[in-house]
Amino acid sequence: MRIEKCYFCSSPCYPGHGIQFIRNDSKSFRFCRSKCHRNFNKKRNPRKVAWTKAYRKTRGKELSIDTTFEFEKRRNRPIKYDRNLMGKTIQAMQRVQGIKDRREERYHANRMYDAKAEKVSQARVEIEKHTELLAPAVAKREEVMQNVLGSARSRIATRRVVKEKALARGGQKMEE
């Protein structure tokens, strides 16, 4: 089973899915869905359409220079596998995928590092603007906390009384 890539958006095209267009010069184009085919027919550049992988790579939203992509390019040749080689290949592929995922997470975390501080500052500004909305919620929370503390105190008091009675009974049995 060969999984090909969509010519426009670079997503996988599984067998029996999508559209294949063959030009007069015998060049074939695979599309994962009609959306990609329509955009190709409209002569749109995938690097300028925001939802494609080409756009994300050109704008620096995804890793474009990564050594793990080289492995994918090399693996396209059909090879006869034996069982041991197949097992090792699958393990290697999983390891490469793990490395790729970790790098991508690191890359994303680095990109979002400044955004986190920005979000916090925006939230503070928003809270300062609308403090009158938060006041009833805070008062309600304090009331709930007082109820919880009151019930906890009453439970602790009953436990003490029960313990004292048990100790008193235990002391009477020891004397007999």
Q: How far from one another are the termini?
A: 88 Å
- Side by side, the strands of the main sheet go 1-2
Give the uncertain stretches in residue-range form: none
What is the overall pLDDT average? Answer: 84
Task: Specify the number of helices.
Answer: 5
Q: Into which percent range does the helicity of residues fall?
A: 55-70%
Main sheet attributes: strand count, strand direction, barrel closure: 2 strands, antiparallel
Secondary-structure element order, as H and E?
Answer: EEEEHHHHH
Identify the overall geometry. elongated
Strand content: 5-15%
Number of strands: 4
Q: What class, by secondary structure content? A: mainly alpha
Gyration radius (Cα, Å) is 33 Å
Walkthrough of the structure:
There is one protein chain. A two-stranded antiparallel sheet has the order 1-2. The protein is built from five helices and four strands; from the N terminus they run E-E-E-E-H-H-H-H-H. The model has no long low-confidence stretch (mean pLDDT 84). The chain is mainly α and 176 residues long. It starts with a strand and ends with a helix.
Write a brief caption for the model:
The protein is mainly α and 176 residues long.
What topology emerges from the helices and strands here?
Blueprint: E1 4-5, E2 12-13, E3 19-22, E4 28-31, H1 34-41, H2 53-58, H3 67-74, H4 83-129, H5 131-175
Antiparallel strand pairs: 1-2, 3-4
Key structural traits:
mainly alpha, 176 residues, 5 helices, elongated
